[in-house]
Amino acid sequence: MEMPHCAMVGGASDVALCAGLNQLKNEHGHLNERKRALYETAGQIINGELENKREALDALRKGTESFSAQLKHHAEREENVLFTMMARYIGRENGPIAMMEYEHDEAEKYIEIFLNGTKIMDEDQAEVLASYIVQMYELLTNHFFKEENVLFPMAENLLSAAEKDELEEKVCTTGLQ
Predict the structure, then answer these.
(1) Are 113 and 139 in contact (CB under 8 A)?
(2) Would 66 be classed as within a structural domain?
(3) Which of 29, 73, 77, 132 gives 114 a disulfide partner, CB atoms 3.0 to 4.6 angstroms apart?
(4) Where does the Hemerythrin-like domain lie (predicted)?
């Protein structure tokens, strides 16, 4: 997908963001901590570093369920509020918003495959199942980087003051718990 011209792509992380965009960006920090812990456990399973695979998969499943709920809440606010606002200017069918929504769907797909696969704790499938968490981690790491360095600065320049106030009202009052 082709990115529209954006003058701030280089050095975009230096752009001061409005409160709503800051809220979404700050949530990435919490989500990054959570996904990093999942990634580390998945890596230990894949590398055979844990004695009890069943116990490790169960812990990874519980952590993933909790993470998934927070990720869904975050992604829904991005899609329903921020992306909808930005779509008025740059469209939604192609370009950065379409890519961000696709990546949200892909991350959710990896999580679903893992959760469905761990309903029955099959130790023989532990490494394969854990690999979906690794894939989710890698996808979201790149995704958050693109949002913080391209999409959020782009939104800062596109949105009007009234839209930024609306974004703050809708995003900051429903932040991650």
Answers:
(1) no
(2) yes
(3) 132
(4) 20-155
Instruction: Please give the average per-residue pLDDT across 84-101, as a whole number.
Output: 94
Give Cα 138 to chain centroid, integer Å: 10
Say how far apart CA 165 and CA 152 lie, in whole Å. 15
- Separation CA 125–CA 128 (nearest Å): 5
Total tally of structural domains belonging to the chain: 1
Asked whether residue 12 carries a pLDDT value surpassing 80, the answer given is: no
Q: What is the largest CA-CA distance in the chain?
A: 56
Residue 2 belongs to a domain:
no
pLDDT at 9 over 50: no
pTM, two decimals, is 0.87
Can you say how many angstroms the Cα of residue 131 is from the centroid of all Cα atoms in its chain? 17
> CB of 134 within 8 A of CB of 36?
no
Rounded CA-CA distance 23/144 in Å is: 13
37-79 pLDDT, tens digit each: 999 999 999 999 988 988 999 999 999 999 999 999 999 999 9
Query: What is the domain extent for residue 62?
Result: 17-172
Q: Which residue has the tokens 């990435």?
A: 28
DSSP-derived letter for residue 11 is T
For residue 86, the one-letter residue type is M
